Amino acid sequence: PASPIVFLAFSADGTLFATAGRNDRLVRIWYQNQQLLLPNQSVDLAVSGTAVTYSFIYVAHPRPVTGFSWRDTSRYMPRGAVANMLVTNCKDNICRLWSETVLPDDGLICMQQLDPAAAQD
Length: 121
What we know:
Layout: E1 5-10, E2 16-21, E3 26-32, H1 43-47, E4 54-60, E5 65-70, E6 85-90, E7 95-102, E8 109-113, H2 116-119
Antiparallel strand pairs: 1-2, 2-3, 3-4, 5-6, 6-7, 7-8
């Protein structure tokens, strides 16, 4: 059974949001599914289906998550100029910094932990 959401935060640019429940070791990073345009498609065809859907990736932790927050960016910066970064903390008393990476070929979102030593735990 899924646990109720206790933690929720939106990225500064509004493109991502993170959720977690009480005693969860996994943070879900949600992103909107984007339809890719093929060279022979027009924008009208791509927008004709008005349903908005979301997918998520998991960010794993060794102990239950106790909170998280997104890095603030200036409202004057253009969208996509700075990568979204998420700071998470859990019951092992270690803060982890996760950085957004958008893969160029498929547009999928990936969150990578910046401290290689902590990733070995």
